[in-house]
Specification:
It is built from 19 helices and 13 strands. It has a six-stranded mixed β-sheet with strand order 7-10-11-3-12-13, with helices on both faces. The protein has helices spanning about 5-15, 20-50, 60-110, 110-115, 120-160, 165-210, 210-215, 220-245, 250-275, 280-320, 380-390, 435-440, 455-460, 470-480, 480-485, 505-520, 535-550, 585-590, 595-600; strands at about 340-350, 360-365, 370-375, 395-405, 415-420, 420-430, 440-445, 455, 495, 525, 555, 570-575, 575-580.
């Protein structure tokens, strides 16, 4: 076992600590099972010695031996059953803990990790790799303890019968261990390649099924088949090699076992002829020779499965040990309610160091302002939203939010009018603010909709689970989703599958808008929020948005410039910088980049 496997095994053993009582019980039961199994040949040998010849059979003695044998069989069966229950319970609790840790880590991973990894590979690690690991672990618990106990117990029993014959068995045994070890080293790397290829295959399948309409629309089927066949061929190659080498273990060790059995038979027969042992003892020895060598076959099979299990476990632990998103500061401020003020100073950010994106970004947003962000694709609009929400952290500079609640002294304090009332706000760097409280003050509607499997009600109330029926229906009506929901088979209790099932893209977006309207946080982010809605409904939604945005700071990302005419401030971005800023009319009057964008849509 190499260093990498040992490290993985130590991690597995850490998960076993919680279940040491079950492990101890399993080992004790394995010992009982082996003891009963090894005692049975002695009983049969004794019975054989009671058959001395014609009319010289000790029937009373044989009956007593049969009674004892029945007791041994019953105890053995019960011990094996309870041991299997313990092993199954231990295995699947360990697997449950590992899956729980893996999923919790996914929830805490930075968005940059999720964006940079194939989603199908992550799914494969949590599902397929853990299943393979479970199979290997269960086989290890079931056969490894019993096998080792059988080997030790058989040697002890054989030593009590004849030392010389036992010595012959021990001398030949290392050959079997050498063969199993040699093959196991060859199989580990192949099983790891097999596991990685499975992850690639899952990724392709996930991509193609999730985007089948696009695949068919662009006649990509043939190319998709070629990609799948290439990965499938590699998986077949790795699987075949791993299976071929692992399948050599059993016949190789069986060959060695046959040598052991033959040696015991020859030396035992010579000893019996010379009067060293009885015929019944020779029968015991031959049975023990089989029982002694059989665990080597089982253990060699277990070792092969463990190679596969450890290869999969290594991939799981790689995920679990990925660096989590930087935790909030211990003294991080919990933002109860934002006052709507946003101050951005000298912010720079790039996804990769070699490719600059946002540099020296400065902006000050007053409470209740509607800020529209426009610009060509790739100019940094969505990146700016990611920074506001702390999906990504800035490389340099600060983004600060104002808070309505009382704060410590020493921070900048501003006074302004909101909703006709004078309010005092405190500015706080979002890097020193808890992410949960920060994001709880934003309502976000994206171009890409996301719905979970469940009822319509559960999807709307995701951000406010304790909402009343009246509040939920009011939000649905405000988003113009109520009418189509009532037409569904079970209304708000209609079950939808992952990502909305048979709902149209527009209907999905209306549900996402209703979700935000139910929460009504103090700040809003609308990233092409009406891109999938028909023009007539969009006009109604825009009116609803105007009502919702009243008194709330709003950031609106839009490609259709007609939807942002009423914005208080329009930011025109290009190559990560604000190149123009102003109202719709003032920007048109400048006859600059915005004017060209606007006229290109209407002229």
């Amino acid at each position: 076992m190499d260093k990498k496997q040992l490290i993985t095994l130590k991690k597995v053993l850490r998960y076993m600590k919680k279940y040491i009582p079950l492990l101890v019980v399993s080992i004790l039961l394995a010992t009982i099972t082996v003891a009963m199994t090894l005692y049975f040949p002695i009983l049969m040998g004794n019975a054989l010695d009671l058959i001395l010849g014609k009319d010289l059979v000790d029937f009373e003695g044989i009956v007593e031996i049969i009674k004892t044998a029945v007791f041994v069989i019953v105890v053995n069966a019960i011990a094996q059953w309870v041991m299997n229950v313990c092993n199954n319970r231990m295995t699947y609790h360990i697997v449950m803990d590992i899956r729980k840790d893996a999923f919790q880590k996914i929830e805490r991973l930075p968005l940059s990790y999720i964006d940079s990894k194939a989603h199908g590979d992550i799914v494969s690690r949590v599902i397929a790799d853990v299943d393979t690991f479970a199979e290997g672990l269960l086989m290890g618990f079931t056969q490894l303890f019993t096998g080792v106990a059988t080997i030790v117990g058989t040697l002890l029993f054989m030593l009590t019968l004849d030392f010389k014959i036992t010595f012959v068995v021990v001398v030949i045994t290392p050959v079997s261990l050498f063969v199993a070890s040699f093959i196991a080293k060859k199989t580990f790397s192949m099983f790891r390649l097999q596991s990685e290829a499975k992850g690639e295959q899952t990724t392709i399948i996930d991509e193609m099924i999730g985007n089948q309409k696009v695949v068919q629309a662009f006649a990509y089927e043939k190319k998709a088949e070629e990609r799948f066949e290439e990965v499938n061929a590699r998986l077949q190659k790795y699987s075949l090699n791993a299976t071929f080498f692992s399948s050599l273990v059993n016949p190789s060790t069986r060959f060695v076992n046959s040598l052991v059995y033959a040696a015991v038979g020859i030396f035992g027969a010579l000893s019996a002829i010379g009067g060293g042992i009885s015929v019944g003892q020779l029968s015991c020895f031959l049975t023990y020779a089989n029982q002694y060598t059989k665990p080597f076959n089982e253990i060699s099979g277990v070792v092969t499965e463990l190679q596969n299990a450890l290869a999969c476990a290594g991939r799981i632990f790689e995920l679990i040990e990925e660096a989590a998103e930087k935790a909030d500061d211990v003294d991080a401020y919990v933002l109860a309610e934002a006052d709507g003020r946003v101050a951005i100073e000298n912010v720079s950010f790039s996804y990769t160091p070699e490719q600059k994106l946002i540099e020296d970004f400065n902006l000050e947003v007053k409470p209740g302002q509607r800020v529209a962000i426009v610009g060509p694709t790739g100019c940094g609009k969505t990146t700016f939203i990611n920074l506001l929400m702390r999906f990504y952290d800035v490389n340099s500079g600060t983004i600060s939010l104002g808070a309505l609640d009382d704060m410590q002294t020493g921070e900048e304090r501003v006074t302004y009018q909101q909703g006709g009332n004078q309010v005092q706000g405190q500015l706080y760097d979002i890097m020193h603010m808890t992410r949960k409280s920060l994001r709880g003050n934003y309502g976000m509607v994206l171009q890409e909709t996301w719905l979970k499997a469940g009822t319509i009600r559960e999807n709307i109330c995701m951000g406010k689970p304790d909402a009343t029926e009246e509040e939920m229906i009011a939000a649905a009506k405000a988003s113009h989703a109520h009418s189509f929901i009532k037409r569904l088979p079970n209304g708000y209790e209609t079950q939808i599958s992952e990502d909305g099932g048979n709902l149209s893209q527009g209907q999905k977006q209306l549900l996402c808008i209703a979700r935000v309207m139910l929460c009504l946080p103090p700040m809003l982010i609308l990233d092409e929020a009406t891109s999938s809605i028909d023009t007539r409904t969009e006009m109604k939604i825009q009116k609803a948005f105007l009502t919702m945005m009243e008194g709330r700071t709003s950031f609106i990302v839009a490609h259709r410039l007609s939807t942002i005419r009423e914005s208080d401030v329009i930011l025109v971005m290009k190559e990560g910088k604000i190149i123009e800023q102003g109202t719709h009319e003032s920007l048109l009057a400048q006859n600059g980049f915005y004017s060209k964008l606007y006229n290109s849509q209407f002229c």
